[in-house]
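User: My notes are a mess, but here's the protein and adenosine-5'-diphosphate's SMILES. Can you give me a structure?
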Amino acid sequence: MEEKKKVGVIFGGMSTENEVSVQSAKSVMKNIDTNTYKIEPIYIDKKGIWYESKQEDEVEFGGEIKSKTKIDNIVEYLKKLDIVFPVLHGLYGEDGTIQGLLKLLNIKYVGCGVLASSVGMDKAYTKIIFDRANINQAKYVYLKVVNEKYVYVDKNFDEKTMEMKEVVKTITTQLKFPMFVKPSNSGSSVGIKKAENEEQLAENIRYAAKFDTKVLIEEGIEGKEVECAVLGNEEVIASNVGEIKAADEFYSFDAKYKNSKSRTVIPADIPEKIAEEIRKQAIKAFKAIDGRGLSRVDFFVEKDTNKIYINEINTMPGFTNISMYPKLFESVGIKYDELLDTLLKLAEE
Ligand SMILES: Nc1ncnc2c1ncn2[C@@H]1O[C@H](COP(=O)(O)OP(=O)(O)O)[C@@H](O)[C@H]1O
Ligand SMILES: [Mg+2]
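Assistant: No problem, the inputs look usable. Here's the predicted complex:
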């Protein structure tokens, strides 16, 4: 008998999405084909310490990982693996850092490479690439916050240091309220707030700056929030389009993980022509960032006009069996375990 391939499933991580990642990985590990693969669970805690874990461990959301043995030599440990599935969301996982480590060690891994991961994680840079690809998106500006000083970066990357008063003035001449203020590197809506007026704008910029040195400000789009999943390396396919019904004013952290009234609807209640256009744009966006393996691409469909705006691309989307990404593919006939099989095969290409 041929020896089984060792798949390292890495989860947890140092980001604000540690708990979400644990849940995603639990589902993934339950559904990987164990006739072909041997699963090696690896847990990274919030401090960045790596552990060998056990698959059987049941962990509720936010609960503690019980079976864990510290890995002393991470490099040696990783070298024993054939493939890695980094089921990590957010910083130090979805941003190209772990991908860089794996690449350096010549280990195959599931999903996007270094460049796509880091571009997808940084909202300001995602916007710059989408602009270049002519994909419609909300108007935006971004700032760098250095030692409580605000550096406005214009379209030519020329910088101007400003006081908050001037920042607000500059932004309000370019964008209309309501605006969304976001840390450029964020996930799960952490640090994101909606601003309806100048005071809130200043307040929200200060708040977002607690999470990242780059802050993105964009015009709010009123309409439906929809998502499309893509899969593939060279030949990329797109799923159905699904809709998010957030149980809050917007899809905040609480609406995502705490409010059970948030719902998803598949397929989204939009005209087929619009859905087809979203699928096309999702693939285009994925290719524009040099994507590989998988991504979930999020859009808004504007009320009244049905105009499409791209919002963001997630290179390692939530992966529990009730998450949008697997559900979108399930709705077009690709079951969860088949999806994992395809992703592992794509990683080996
Ligand atoms: N320009 C916008 N117009 C309307 N709602 C927005 C806009 N940007 C963000 N939102 C709302 O905020 C949520 C989180 O923003 P998003 O950019 O998706 O960040 P994250 O990466 O944390 O998911 C979105 O799901 C949406 O509900
Ligand atoms: Mg989002």
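The mean pLDDT is 95.
User: Great, I'll file this with my notes.
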